[in-house]
């Protein structure tokens, strides 16, 4: 039995498609607080010439500004790709309540692969993590994007 994707993940996937159309790696992110969308962004590294402008980082910054606080402890981050170590550390620092992601990233992930930031003894906050939500669509977007560039 399949279930419909939650609205925030559907929106993150749409943002990932828009990013790909703009020549950015297709990753989209949405921050919610309850049912309210606080921020929705896509990768912007190339367009902004900012190596830290991963979708997650931009979304966390925007949500913090909207709420007027660096603590996003009642918020959930929805992202189409497993966050890297930089983004996972930012998630912990922002004290996000939950992380929901689509595709795993065996090469660059920092949550279930690589650095596994949330399992480190120096990590002071561990969000509730659930992956695989919309995994097939997110992975297909990434494969198509990189196939066109090889």
Account of the protein in words:
The chain is of the alpha/beta class and 150 residues long. 38% of the residues lie in helices and 19% in strands. It has a 5-stranded mixed beta sheet with strand order 2-1-3-4-5. The chain starts with 6 loop residues before the first helix and ends with a helix. The model has no long low-confidence stretch (mean pLDDT 96).
Radius of gyration: 14 Å
- H and E string: HEEHHEHEEH
SSE class = alpha/beta
Number of contiguous helices = 5
- How do the strands of the widest beta sheet line up side by side? 2-1-3-4-5
Mean pLDDT over the residues? 96
For the record, give the distance between the C-alpha atoms at the N and C termini, rounded to a whole number. 36 Å
Largest sheet descriptor: 5 strands, mixed
The low-pLDDT segments are none
Estimate percent helicity.
25-40%
For the secondary structure, the number of strands is 5
Shape: globular
Beta-strand residue percentage: 15-25%
